[in-house]
Amino acid sequence: MGITQELDSTESISQEVIFPPGDLYSDEPPLETELHLRQIILLLSCLEWLWRDRNDFYVAGNLTIYYSPHQSKLEKFRGPDFFVVLGTERKTRKSWVVWEEDGKYPNVIVEILSESTANTDKGLKKKLYQDTFRTLDYFWFDPYTLEFAGFHLVDGAYQPLQANELGHFWSQQLGLYLGIERGLLRFFTSEGQLVPSPEEAAEQAEQRAARLAAKLRELNIDPDSI
Question: Which of 5, 51, 93, 137 is the most buried (most CB within 10 A)?
Fold first, then answer.
């Protein structure tokens, strides 16, 4: 084949290429979108930073929970988007195996909704977390529509939580509020203060140091000499 024929062939192929639209859900389970991943990482990093001096909890995202009464990993397992177990050792795990963890189930679960998972999260999973896991605090959040709901287990059944004046739901288990800030689900203290991420905390520390240095210079004190 000559050069001219090769160019004609390449041009013909390139004209047939149709690129798909960019706003597509990934077919790669179990995370639906990049935003889901960012949301889970944000919850993880913020809680671990807040509880950095504690060693009595386990927090994970997108991790399998095995809960078979037959102690088999071939049946009965689920992977919540985000969960917290209290009163346990803080260490790295490949999965959460209930029968290897003194029968403990998550105290708190958060599911990040999507078009393909919303019905399951609101139905099948909610019932599972209520009846089998007995998880005391359950929340779901849609990062695109900003739908947000919270439930607390009362006498064996989930009761909807009532939001405060800021639209935040209180988690008795965490001792924190959960609420939406700039389109993302965040933790807030009992006083309503946003729990920062490690990056945000570092930036705040730098800003405080800069203000202190400026104040010292106003007093004719060289901050570098202290």
Answer: 137
Residue 192 dihedral angles phi and psi, to the nearest 5°? 90, 10
What are the residue ranges spanned by the domains of the chain?
30-195, 196-226
Note the Cα 57 to chain centre separation in Å: 16
**Residue 159, pLDDT above cutoff 90:** yes
pLDDT of 18 above 80: no
Q: With 80 as the cut, is the pLDDT of residue 209 above it?
A: no
CATH topology of domain 30-195: tt1808, chain A (3.90.1570)
**Looking at beta carbons, which pairs linking 85-91 to residues 24 or more positions away fall under 8 Å?**
85/57, 85/58, 85/59, 86/56, 86/57, 86/173, 87/56, 87/57, 88/56, 88/57, 88/58, 89/55, 89/56, 89/58, 90/54, 90/55, 90/56, 90/57, 90/58, 91/58
Residues 51-73 pLDDT 10s: 999 999 999 999 999 999 999 89
